[in-house]
Design goal:
Elements (H helix, E strand, L loop, with lengths): L27 H7 L2 H10 L4 E4 L1 H18 L3 E6 L6 H10 L2 E4 L2 H9 L7 E3 L6 H10 L2 E4 L2 H7 L6 E6 L13 H10 L5 E7 L7 H20 L6 E3 L11 H10 L25 H10 L3 H8 L2 E4 L10 E15 L2 E8 L20 E3 L7 E6 L8 E9 L8 E4 L22 E6 L6 E5 L7
Parallel strand pairs: 1-16, 2-3, 2-9, 3-4, 4-5, 5-6, 6-7, 7-8, 8-9, 11-13
Antiparallel strand pairs: 1-10, 10-11, 10-15, 12-15, 13-14, 16-17
Length: 458
């Protein structure tokens, strides 16, 4: 469901420096939490600082959404959660509950996944230049290893246990540092010691969020599978990686922002470049994108005919509506831009919990000022509590429905995918915000919560 909007009064001149609104789509549990102020107050009262709220039941539902697409298409499919998207232990347990594998890229991630209940055979091990220790543990666990370099094949052949591998393909025309070239792939197919390295298929990763290029490259990988089978390799799988979009805001709001964005909407007239924004509106997100890929050029038919399993490795899309980030407000000051007043809030955390640094941008869905009550529209930027000038959670002047106070909370929606801990740091000695695991009754009228730990469970 979409966020409700309140009627607010806009003082003269405000519209010239205020960004257009971008309320996030709001899930029923998110609305239920906002409707029960005692829960948020209780958590904020016990945690001295910002915190992240995780709702693992939604992770399970997101996984099952992808699984249902595979079932409807009659395709053998496997979902692997890209663990780098969020380190919360409750997400791994949700994956185990839903029969979802986990994509890991380090020894710690592998150990966290197995400790959380993921069988070794449901692990996908990715990443460049893997350490010998990671390769050894992956081999012992019978994990599927996405090989990124011929050297990894050489090192795998030294272990006594046989390994299960995919060869990661460098997409045609790509300048990526990841993947094997055509010549390296041909060499690997002929040089692999079939007694110790079992080739199960191929994988790739594409940037962007389009279905058609993924389907086209999947067809090319199926042809590679056919040729590899002629050489007696036990081919069974292709992986098309991630890049499944998330629809954060409605299309009209996103287009209004994109067409109207200008430096006057940002603190210090500092607007990111137009190409820097993550596409916060996605018309074909998550499972719908998987359905589009399977339907492109009869990919599902070809997978069924060849008996090839399609693996996907979503991260962000499995965390859609699975969490939010809550800040207290430490200070409020008023400044002027082009002769018009606006507020700058200092949150009790830093931008490292929300940044879109890899896009040279910021997190754009509007935060919710809580508690919600009527007032005058107030253009508001949000800074972090560090001494860095660039520590801004929101450079954009957000059209908050009233002036904020130090008794309020600021809730950034749908932050579970990458936002919570991808760039976090304990700069200034500030603690990294803890994750709170939330459960609700079926009607979302009652909630209970606990801190996320590897061993605790409800």
């Amino acid at each position: 469901m979409s966020a409700s909007t309140e009627t607010v009064v806009a003082p003269p001149g405000i519209s010239t420096i205020t960004a257009s609104p971008m309320p996030a789509h709001r899930h029923a549990w998110e609305q239920g939490l906002l409707d029960h102020p005692e829960v948020l107050r209780q958590i904020a009262g016990q945690i001295d600082g910002p915190f992240h709220v995780m709702y693992p039941d939604q992770v399970v539902e997101n996984i099952r959404g992808f699984q249902r697409v595979f079932t409807r298409a009659g395709v053998q499919g496997s979902v692997y959660y890209g663990k780098k998207a969020n380190k919360a232990d409750c997400v791994v347990r949700a994956c185990a509950e839903a029969g979802c594998g986990v994509d890991v890229a380090s020894v710690d991630e592998l150990n966290d996944a197995t400790r959380g209940g993921i069988p070794g055979t449901d692990l996908m091990v990715t990443g460049p230049a893997k350490s010998d220790r990671l390769l050894e543990l992956a081999t012992r666990a019978r994990a599927l290893i996405a090989v990124d370099d011929l050297d990894e094949l050489t090192r795998l052949s030294k272990f006594p246990e046989p390994s299960r591998v995919l060869l990661r393909v460098l997409p045609p025309g790509s300048t990526s540092r990841f993947g094997l070239t055509e010549q390296e792939l041909d060499l690997a197919l002929t040089e692999i010691d079939r007694n110790i390295v079992h080739l199960h298929g191929f994988s790739f990763h594409l940037s962007g969020y389009e279905a058609a290029p993924r389907a086209a490259l999947a067809h090319a990988l199926i042809e590679r599978c056919r040729k590899a089978r002629v050489l007696d390799h036990p081919i069974s799988t292709i992986s098309i990686g991630g890049g499944f979009g998330v629809d954060y805001v409605c299309g009209d709001d996103w287009e209004t922002f994109r067409k109207g964005v200008n430096p006057r909407w940002f603190h210090g007239d500092r607007a990111p470049g137009a190409g820097s924004y993550y596409p916060y509106h996605c018309p074909v997100p998550g499972p719908a994108m998987l359905a589009a890929i399977l339907g492109s050029d009869d990919l599902a038919d070809t997978l069924r005919e060849t008996g090839i399993r399609l693996a996907i490795e979503p991260g962000r899309a499995l965390l859609d509506h699975a969490g939010s980030t809550v800040f207290g407000i430490q200070g409020v000051k008023t400044r002027y831009a082009h002769g018009v007043p606006y507020d700058i809030l200092t949150a009790n955390g830093t931008s490292l919990s929300l940044s879109e640094q890899w896009f040279n941008s910021e997190y754009l869905p509007d935060p919710v000022l809580w508690p919600q009550r009527p007032g005058n529209l107030t253009p508001t930027c949000v800074g972090g509590s560090s001494c860095l000038e660039d520590d801004m959670l929101s450079w954009r002047r957000i059209p908050l429905p009233r002036p904020a106070t130090t008794d309020d909370l600021l809730i950034y929606p749908n932050t579970a995918g990458y936002q919570m801990d991808s760039n976090e740091s304990s700069f200034h000695g500030l603690p990294i915000p803890p994750k709170v695991v939330l459960r609700s009754s079926p009607d979302r009228r009652q909630f209970n919560w606990r801190l996320d730990t590897a061993l605790d469970a409800f």
